[in-house]
Amino acid sequence: MIEKTTLENGIRIVTENVPAVHSVTIGIWVESGSRHEHQAQGGISHFVEHLLFKGTSRRSALEIAREIDSVGGVLNAFTSREYCCFYAKVLARHLPLAIDLLADSLQSSIFDLDEIEKERRVILQEISMVEDTPDDLVHDLFSQTFWGNHPLGRPVLGSRESVKNMSRDDFLAHLEGFLVGGNILVCAAGDLNHDHVVDRIARVFGQMAAGARKQVHSHPDYRPSLSFTRRDLEQVHICLGTRALPQNHPNRFSAYILNTILGGSMSSRLFQTIREEQGLAYSIYSYLNSHSDAGALVLYTATSTENAPLVVRMMLKEMQRFKVEPVSRAELKAAKDQLKGHLLLSLESTDNRMTRLSKNEIYLGRQPSLKQVLGEFEKVTAESIQRLAHFLFQDDYLNLQLLGQIEEKQFPLLDLTLG
Fold first, then answer.
1. Fewest CB within 10 angstroms: 42, 143, 224, 277, which?
2. Is 49 a catalytic residue?
3. Contact criterion met (CB below 8 Å) for 278 and 180
């Protein structure tokens, strides 16, 4: 059973009681991420996320870790382009402790100067780690190229320059605008009572200022590009992408199925053609990267320098195939069964149920039933996928990012086109 309550200060609380489980996962979702930051402070949401577990007026960082460890729980956080999430998973009887730890960390962190400097070094190492991992770096490079100067194109971690220049005052000012009731969503799933959760959240967050939700003020444009980044690597890492649908688009179920058939699994067209039939790559897949107002469909692989042009042509051919040839009945059924199976299996985890509650609230403003979602998958047809392919797969939106020992003059695929 899913229930929702909104406190007077605007904090929304959505819970789902899940029978026959022993755990509860609770998340404090703050609707502010890297796309809401000024360029000079790129990465500040992520930096603050790190600092909020580094000591409060009541607990040291070690005491926070010991308290959650002593009950066998998990306490963690992550930052994305549109939100930050601070969450805990515990046995149901320890939910009051989890709420207290989250509230204490979010509202009473002291931002000790020594801890700030330590975390600054940690984040700089995190940036270096990404730069040293080409199969991570190429996705950041693709985002920068695809979204251009729009905030969606900036790395969530920020840049070395922005991370080095942030001060304690910057963090406190960011937190003041970040932690307001209208910007906060609390979601919990598991062995819980909704009214008890609401009561505890009201006690620890009830005095928080109301404020307003962060608004998206600029929408990205899509334009074609071809980008080469030279690195001394054994392989060329490839990201090929085009526009996709935002999170709440009515045709999103067709997009999920199209992506599944294209590169969503080992039985997908990309995997079977490029890896299994031709042996040209080890890892190859596609994914949807959707936001509140825009999205990208991205294909990734890595291959030898000499085979890179051929592999890109094969990727383009598989995209074009959706436009000229309806998917078969067998492919469509298999993709639907795969997605429905993944969804049903995910519901066995209170973590996934909590995340599902939050994303539905953030992007849809409602909680579709499982029956409704499964019904939307069933409505997808070969014709609706083909119409979507014509909408998405256009030359005006194609972006190609290559990372490795390759230069534009060495790359014969100058006619980057879907026809």
1. 277
2. yes
3. no
Prediction pTM value:
0.93
CATH of domain 225-410: 3.30.830.10
Side-by-side strand order, sheet with 74-79: 2-6, 12-17, 184-190, 23-30, 84-91, 74-79
Task: Single out the catalytic residue among 49, 82, 119, 361.
Answer: 49
The rounded percent of the chain whose pLDDT value lies above 70 is 97
Rg of the chain, C-alpha, whole Å: 23
Amino acid identity at 253:
F
Instruction: Phi first, then psi: give them for residue 72, nearest 5 degrees.
Output: 70, 20
Question: What's the fold here for domain 2-205?
Answer: Cytochrome Bc1 Complex; Chain A, domain 1 (3.30.830)
> Which of 268, 273, 262, 257 has its CA nearest to residue 314?
273
Burial 386-418, CB ≥16 within 10 A → b, else e: bebbebbbbeebbbbbbbbbbeeeebebeebeb
* Average confidence (pLDDT) over 256-274: 97
Taking alpha carbons only, the member of 258, 236, 234 closest to residue 245 is 258
CA neighbor of 34 nearest in space, from 300, 291, 297:
291
For residue range 219-235, what is the model confidence (pLDDT) as tens digits? 788 888 889 999 999 99
Question: Residue 176 corresponds to which tokens in the numbers above?
Answer: 């003041």
pLDDT(298) > 60: yes
Q: Where are the domains of the chain?
A: 2-205, 225-410
| Residue 89 CB contacts under 8 Å (≥ 6 apart), including other chains | 23, 24, 25, 26, 73, 74, 98, 350, 351
- Sole residue written with tokens 């959505």: 14
Tens digit of each residue's pLDDT (9 = 90 or more) over 119-152: 999 999 999 999 999 999 999 999 999 998 899 9
pLDDT (mean) for 39-62: 95
pLDDT at 221: 83
Highest mean pLDDT: which of 207-211, 305-309, 388-392? Answer: 388-392
Residues 6+ apart with CB under 8 A from 164: 120, 124
Residue 257 near residue 339, CB atoms below 8 Å = yes
Q: Does the structure show a pLDDT above 70 at 216?
A: no
